[in-house]
Amino acid sequence: MTEAVGPRAELRVWDDNACRKVHDATCRVLAETGIEIRHPRALELLRQASADVADTRARLSRELIDRALAAAPRAFVLKGRAPDGSLDRELADGRTWFGTGPDCLYVADPQGSGRRRALLADVERYAALCEKLPNIDFIMSMGLPEDADIERVDLAQLAAMLAGTRKPIVVSSPFGGAPLRVMNEMAGVCDGAGSLACLTMSSPPLQLDEVCLDKLIVCGELGVPAILAPSPSAGSTAPASIAAIVVVANAEVLAGLVVSQLAHPGAPFLYGAGVGVLNMQTMVESYRSPSVALGNQACIDLARWYGLPSWAYAGDSDSKLFDEQAAAESAMGAILGELCRATLLHDVGYLESGLQSSYEALVLGDELVGYARAFGAELPIDDEALALGEIMLAGPGGNHLARPMTRANYRRFHRSGLFDQSAHDRWQAAGATTLRERVASRTQELLTGPPTFRLDETTRRRLRDLVAQAPPGR
User: Fold this and answer.
1) Quick check: is 423 in a domain?
2) What are the phi and psi torsion angles at 453 (to 5°)?
3) How far is residue 37's CA from residue 171's CA, in Å, rounded to a whole number?
4) Looking at residue 114, what DSSP letter applies?
5) Please, which residues have CB within 8 angstroms of residue 116's CB and are 6 or more apart in sequence?
6) 332 and 401 both lie in a single domain
């Protein structure tokens, strides 16, 4: 399914030997210490597979882990809702897609009123904005709306996202697997069968709770790709060592993979990177700490070694405002995200260590992802690319301004729509704007312009009915 990739820039921290050593260490932890499994069916599946289960503690053999790794698919498609398939995303090692993030409590209001609680209207507005942004490939809610019924908040978020975009959606729910069945029906109502993936998280250290496991099992039942993202943190839920944090995270992901594949062999599964470093002075976990980036890269190296599609972070910031820190950290995150070669990269447009989302940060993030993608593109060295005939034809002292190759190719070079690259006089004549001002102007233009997609009212009513009729949570 996946085409061969030519020469291109990429990051790697651990080679195959290092990944093998970390895998061996992880297998030892799972076999000797085991992992807490807080779900009756998951425990029964493990017993039937001859795992060592005592009460809620399961010890997993290397053979069980190997079988799960062999059963998991290496590639699958997360569909969009464009009739021509242009919004479909192949999820496989080596393909990289960027998207937003879920459930921020706060929003940086684009009208300038400051930080406020997220509303359901924000979820749809973000989705509609993402529909217009060419480098945002999948959608998450970007807000935990305070005006939605808390027992059905995940369903209300999905209804808002389906109303705003046709791009693939990754859902994040505080409940178990039952709401996923309603979500799957909601997507089907919008001609979006196969357009959902589901994020679920472990409970470090070395625990998979009932909500997490229930979602993994129901995802397999529905054919919805499951993303299992760990979150162990240095010095609190994992040892104060990056390599040790990765072992804890890897153990949680592999244990979840085992349950997923026992329940539904071949269920689509993404390996989530999640290494935390708690700042002991502020008691806040930084998104953009270099240690976090290094640990997440090590997790992605493991996912690549396993051959599994992966999930990581890009385009986010710890800044409390859309300011110079936000721009710098988002730029670093976008470049590192592209070079890490994870499959799905989320949280573009995040501020405040994941507590706040920003329309302006998202618009800048889209621009930064475009830059990162241009840098991360293939750099072929075939005869056409080397263009020796053109070089020799122009010769010493010649030029290529009027050559057909120049006319055919010069538009392929990346040009920014927000970063000024003009002469000083032209910049001054155009208003001498700052990047901050240009981003604000572009954001307002996108938010106030006509939508590129609008869900019909009949389907909107059907979605509202499904949300209202669904049993609360759980």
Assistant:
1) no
2) -145, 140
3) 23
4) -
5) 106, 107, 109
6) no
Residue span of the structural domain in which 320 resides = 71-377+459-469
Helices (H) and strands (E) in the chain, counts: 17, 20
- Strand ranges for 73-195 from DSSP E: 75-78, 89-92, 97-98, 106-108, 115-117, 169-172
> pLDDT confidence of 2, banded at 50, 70, 90?
low
Please write the tens of the pLDDT for every residue from 294-323.
999 999 999 999 999 999 999 999 999 999
- Per the structure, the count of domains in the chain is 2
Q: Is the peptide bond before 145 cis (omega within 30 degrees of 0)?
A: no
327 and 399 part of one domain:
no
Q: What is the percent of the chain with per-residue pLDDT over 70, rounded to a whole number?
A: 99
Residue 284 scores a pLDDT above 90: no
Q: Residue 43's pLDDT is what?
A: 98
* Shared-domain flag, residues 186 and 326: yes
> What is the H or E stretch that residue 406 is in?
helix 404-409
pLDDT of residue 4: 60
DSSP 8-class letter at 116: E
The residue type of 239 is P
8 in any annotated domain: no
| One domain for residues 398 and 317 | no
How far apart (Å, rounded) are the C-alpha atoms in residues 424 and 226? 50
Residues 226 and 247 in one domain: yes
Examine the domain organization and report whether 391 and 268 are in the same domain. Answer: no
d(CA 296, CA 347): 14
Position 151 pLDDT exceeds 90: yes
Contact present, 348 and 362 (Cβ < 8 Å): yes
Domain co-membership, 273 together with 399? no
| 247 within 8 A of 25, measured Cβ to Cβ | yes
Which of 59, 18, 76 minimizes the C-alpha distance to 258?
Answer: 59
- In whole numbers, what is the pLDDT of the chain averaged over residues? 95
CA angle 284, 300, 203 (to 5 degrees): 50
Task: Give the model's pLDDT for residue 274.
Answer: 86
Query: What's the one-letter identity of residue 254?
Result: L
For range 41-46, the mean pLDDT: 98
386-427 per-position pLDDT tens digit: 999 999 999 999 999 999 999 999 889 999 999 999 999 999
- Is 390 found in the same domain as 294? no
Coil, helix or strand for 232? coil
